Structure formats: C-alpha cells, structure tokens
Amino acid sequence: MGKGKQNKFKERKAASYNREVKSIELRLGQRARLIVISFKDFDRNQGETFEYWEGENLLSLAVIKLQGVCGLTRIEATYQQIIKEYPKGIFPDNSDFYHPKHIPEDISWCSMHIQGKECVIGYFEDNIFYVVFLDKEHRFWITEKKQT
Q1: Does residue 147 lie in a domain region?
Q2: Residue 97 belongs to domain spanning
Q3: How many other C-beta atoms can be found within 10 angstroms of the C-beta atom of residue 54?
Q4: Of 18, 36, 45, 79, which has fewest CB within 10 angstroms of its CB?
Q5: H or E segment at 36?
Q6: Does residue 110 contact residue 124 with C-beta atoms inside 8 Å?
C-alpha cells in the first residue's frame, strides 16, 4: 500500500474516532473532563521507586507519557489503548503484586506502557488516574510470551 493510501486511511480512522468521541460526549451532555494524575495512593512497598526509575532513565519517559495523557479524556486514553482498563474488581491472580489495603477492592485496575514492558499501574476514579505501582518488568499482570 502506498504512503498516500496509508495516510488517507489514518485520516479516515482519526476522523471516525473524533466523531465517536464527540458522540459519546454529546450523550453525556457535556465535554468529558481531561485526565488528572494523582500519586496519593502510590505504594512504595511494591514495584520500583521513583529513584530507581530515575537511575534506569525511565522516570522522565514516564513523566512525559503521563503529561501527554493529561491532554486526553479517560474515554480517549482507553479508546486509543494508551491506558488499558481491566474488568472492575479483578486483581490479577498471576501477579507478583498484592492488592494494597489502602486501595478500594471494587476498582478497575489499569496499565499504561511506558516503553516495551515497563508499565505504570493504577486506577481511575472519575477523571483522576491514581498511580499505584511502577512495574519495570511487567510483573503486575504477568502474561505468557507469544511465539516469536
């Protein structure tokens, strides 16, 4: 497929997406609010620390990604698969993490890949994304490797 056709496809897909988001917002009766980031529930006992990610040159990448997400609504971020939201009330069985006591049980856990397997793990409450874990090795929601 030529570059011109690829660009047309991307433009049509983007236009379709914008119509869908606008349609959702109109049904809600107002423009959905942009994502706000909170570190209030960050768990220092699991995953990695900010200092560790800084030493691994991941912290600035994570902050840049989080900054970009703040320009989107929750619907946009999940639709574009920047943030993946898991079913409500389910903590992964196959995880090296445990559900922190200070986090409600009935939330929908979310993951946002920074690059490769590195993830920021958290949850939404309205338009607020609460960062709970930094997961460098993708150990929160462990998945089997696909054949390569």
Answers
A1: no
A2: 33-135
A3: 13
A4: 45
A5: strand 36-38
A6: yes
Taking only Cα atoms into account, the Rg of the chain, rounded to an integer number of angstroms, comes to 17
Are residue 40 and residue 51 in the same domain, yes or no?
yes
CA distance 14 to 38: 29
Residue 23 lies inside a defined structural domain of this protein: yes
11: tokens are 């433009």
60 vs 124: CA distance, rounded Å: 22
Contact 121, 103 (CB under 8 A): no
C-alpha dihedral, 33 to 37 to 40 to 114, nearest 10°: 140
* Residues 20, 60 within the same domain: no
DSSP label of 74: H
Sign for the CA dihedral angle at 119, 138, 46, 41 comes to positive
What would the two tokens of residue 80 be? 């574009």
The model scores a pTM over 0.90: no
Measuring CA to CA, which residue among 110, 127, 107, 113 is closest to residue 35? 127
The total of structural domains in the chain comes to 2
Q: Give pLDDT tens digits for 92-120.
A: 988 999 999 999 999 999 999 999 999 99
